[in-house]
Specification:
The protein is α/β, with parallel strands linked by helices and 418 residues long. The chain is built from 16 helices and 14 strands. The strands form six sheets. A four-stranded parallel beta sheet has the order 3-4-6-11, with helices on both faces. Strands 1-2 form a two-stranded parallel sheet. It has a two-stranded parallel sheet with strand order 5-14. The longest helix has 41 residues. It is globular, with a radius of gyration of 26 Å. It comes from Aspergillus neoniger (strain CBS 115656). Keywords: Lipid biosynthesis, Lipid metabolism, Membrane, NADP, Oxidoreductase, Transmembrane, Transmembrane helix.
Length: 418
């Protein structure tokens, strides 16, 4: 296991989010080797001895490390998503015993299909969709040129970076005649676990639905503007949130049964969440006495400036995607009775059963983080004002050519302290 900071860095993360005994069991497990490395450095920041050890012994590589910052532009995501993936692929292709390479991507790599789909509920199949049909240069453009042409077809630089990474790993493994060893897993919006390691397990800042729910529950605004291409987004839009343990089980099952290519790890049509369910769950926890008014702005592109900041960040609000799951449905028919009993491959949530009360602690943690960031911003602002005032006074004193201390003593010389 590669971790920046090695054992101490991983220990801090595991002890923060897992029960002490579970975290300690993982740290002490004889089959887990923790290496201190960096995905954004050549050879993953590892020494020659460690690289040679990996080349001789590794059978399976699961590349799940990635920035998930939705606010960053493509230029910022390049090193943490695309270049890091390239380094992992380079190492994988040098491993003598490599049987499988798993790249964890996102289900939103094909969001450029929104502009091409006549339906509001956009079909997303388990394959890489070429951008050539939407690019006027027919595939002859550079990445920068392609991004400028298709900027409005992707909700975030993150989604486009993942799309490029999928194309990268597919091209490299195909060129080396090893495409049959490649699995690309595409989770939708990661949510709290159904059962493992315990019900409700989540890292609050890595569960987008929890973060945005915390914003809506505590926001003092009286109204919000959200954008959508749908005619009736409150009724027709959906969000696909998948429990993190279902993502893990799908990865392991498809890995064991040697599935190739792209596989969605999603809740799918049967268990996705309607916008009305989210809205109702928010109002159940909202402590402010007023309801905010929602205004929908009709937009066909992703990057509108008309909607509120929250909507511009969480741009999949007001959308609907039908993520196909044929590969997992086919896999389910191959599993033994015992495997079906132990593996959780599908979300068991019932329609209309979405709630946020079980996430109250995580939402509180998110709200605390938001409050600290705001406090830091105000503190920095006031510190900047004090610095400007101090520099201004110094300049005035220097320009006037007199000693401020002398002037102060003269002004208060006649005053007596009682």
């Amino acid at each position: 296991m590669l971790q920046c900071g090695g054992r101490s860095g991983l220990s801090g993360k595991w002890h923060q989010h897992l029960p002490f005994d579970t975290a300690q069991w993982l740290l002490d497990h004889p089959r887990i080797t923790i290496l201190d490395g960096d995905m954004m450095k050549p050879s993953l920041g590892l020494g020659a001895d460690h690289i040679e050890m990996l080349k001789r012994n590794v059978h399976i590589i699961i590349h799940a490390a990635s920035s998930i910052n939705l606010a960053q532009r493509l230029q910022k995501m390049w090193h943490s998503v695309i270049r890091a993936t390239e380094y992992a692929v380079e190492l994988g292709l040098q491993c003598d015993k490599l049987e499988r390479f798993v790249y964890v991507s996102t289900a939103y790599t094909n969001t450029h299909l929104c502009s091409l789909s006549p339906k509001g509920d956009v079909d997303i199949k388990e394959r890489i969709i070429s951008l050539e049909s939407t690019s006027p240069n027919n595939g002859n453009s550079t990445v920068d040129e392609e991004y400028l042409e298709l900027y409005n077809d992707f909700p975030w630089g993150y989604g486009y970076a993942k799309h490029l990474s999928e194309r990268l790993v597919t091209e490299r493994f195909t060129r080396h005649g090893k495409y049959d060893r490649l699995l690309i897993l595409r989770p939708s919006v990661i949510g709290p676990a159904e059962s493992l390691p315990y019900p409700g397990y989540a890292v609050p800042t890595s569960t987008p639905m929890t973060m945005i729910a915390a914003l809506f529950v505590n926001h003092t605004a009286f109204s919000f503007e959200l954008s959508s291409r749908l005619d009736d987004p409150e009724s027709d839009s959906n969000l696909d949130e998948v429990p993190v343990d279902i993502v893990v089980d799908r990865l392991l099952a498809h890995l064991a049964y040697q599935t190739q290519g792209c596989v969605h790890a999603v809740s799918g049509r049967k268990a996705r969440i309607s916008f009305r369910e989210v809205e109702a769950a928010v109002y159940q926890l909202r402590w402010l006495p007023w309801r905010f008014r929602l205004t929908w702005v009709k937009e066909n592109g992703w990057n509108t400036k008309k909607s509120d900041a929250i909507s511009r960040l969480y741009k999949i609000f007001g959308t609907s995607f039908d993520f196909h799951e044929e590969k997992t449905e086919l896999l389910m028919s191959k599993l033994s009775v015992e495997e079906r009993r132990t593996l959780r491959l599908f979300n068991t949530r019932k329609v209309g059963a979405f709630e946020l009360a079980s996430r109250s602690k995580q939402m509180y943690d998110c709200s605390t983080i938001f409050a600290r960031k705001i406090a830091y911003s105000y503190r920095a602002f006031y510190q900047l004002l004090w610095i400007i005032w101090w520099v201004y006074v110094k300049l005035i004193v220097a320009w006037a050519g007199f000693d401020l201390r002398t002037v102060t003593r003269q002004l208060f010389a006649g005053l007596k302290v009682h």
